[in-house]
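One example copied in:
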Amino acid sequence: MLSFSNFITEPVGNNLTNSPDDIRYTKNNLNALGFIQDDVNEEILTRDLDQGIKDFQEQYNLRRDGLLFPRGETEESVISALARISEEPPPQRGGFLPDIQKKRKDPLLILKETLEKRRGRKTNPKTTGDTRLS
């Protein structure tokens, strides 16, 4: 079972000051999710890690910039993905920031609801015989 003990403390990505602990933490997480095959004990940003971050962002419909920020949407999504595969609830952080996952809706669900609303709209039956919009 995966355990959530750390969060990144500084941004991770190309052209950033990358903390060795944050690099290791990010590599471990992306390796557990199957996005990299890199040596998780190596404390430097590699091409594999950079590509793994971008691939993760692309798969989860996030901005594909290859950057992780503390409490950013990519880090929060990594934590949520790890929680799903480990069946362990994601950790709660103190602070004033809202829990992103509680507020975020699945984009496909939003699209489905929007289409259902549009299909279900009624027109004035006195002006047309059709009660649905085309």
Notes: Residues 73-86 form the longest helix (14 residues). Confidence is low (pLDDT under 50) at residues 95-102. The chain has two domains: 20-96, 104-134.
